[in-house]
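wait is this the right file?? whatever heres the structure
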């Protein structure tokens, strides 16, 4: 009896474990909890030649002590207001999101930049913004990879929302006690996105 009972007991234990795993996963799904895909352990390397961005315009922010360059086709950066109505021009002391480029319905061509004090880890920083948090949690097909751009490590995310749309890019970094988030509109050139990332730096 004991020899015959042991295999049955093992089968019952396995069945209980499988059922527990299923219900736990279902519970987490209902709560909107998803495990973010892990980034690669070895950063990919991207080298941007400085001359490619040498003639670009520059925005400097003295509140958070950073600077970044942006393409000459864009006007001065501004602060996106409600529905982008009557946007306010960005200044050296602006905080919150700074918008570079155009949000015209005819051609979305812009990037958003956000810098704020932050001292936790990169995964926590990526979930601070409700917009990017929604993307990270609900689009399992996204690609997340650590990317070294001219020696600076960024956590870079690319996602295609459906088969008929182009990629959209996000990049995150924590340095000098601050978190940095930069993301593009859909269809933005990845090469140009990397070029913009290569120009970002803290001034102190």
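ok assuming it is, sequence goes like this
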């Amino acid at each position: 009896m004991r020899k015959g009972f042991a295999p049955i007991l093992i089968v019952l234990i396995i069945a209980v474990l499988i059922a527990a795993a299923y219900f736990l996963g279902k519970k987490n799904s209902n709560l909107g909890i998803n495990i973010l895909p892990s980034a690669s352990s070895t950063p990919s390397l991207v080298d941007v030649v400085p001359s490619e961005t040498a003639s670009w315009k520059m925005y400097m922010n003295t509140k958070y002590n950073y600077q970044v360059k942006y393409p000459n086709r864009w006007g001065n950066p501004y602060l996106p207001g409600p529905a982008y109505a009557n946007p306010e021009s960005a200044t050296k002391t602006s905080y919150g999101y700074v918008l570079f480029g155009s949000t015209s319905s005819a051609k979305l061509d812009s990037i958003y930049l956000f810098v704020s004090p932050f001292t936790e880890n990169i995964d926590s920083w990526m979930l601070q913004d409700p917009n990017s948090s929604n993307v990270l949690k609900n689009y399992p097909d996204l690609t997340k990879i650590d990317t070294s751009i001219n020696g600076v490590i960024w956590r870079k995310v690319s996602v295609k929302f459906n088969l008929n749309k182009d990629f959209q890019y996000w990049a995150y970094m924590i340095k000098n006690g601050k978190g940095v988030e930069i993301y593009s509109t859909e269809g933005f050139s990845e090469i140009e996105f990397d070029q913009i990332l290569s120009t970002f730096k803290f001034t102190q």
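The chain has two domains: 1-33, 44-202. so i think its the right one actually
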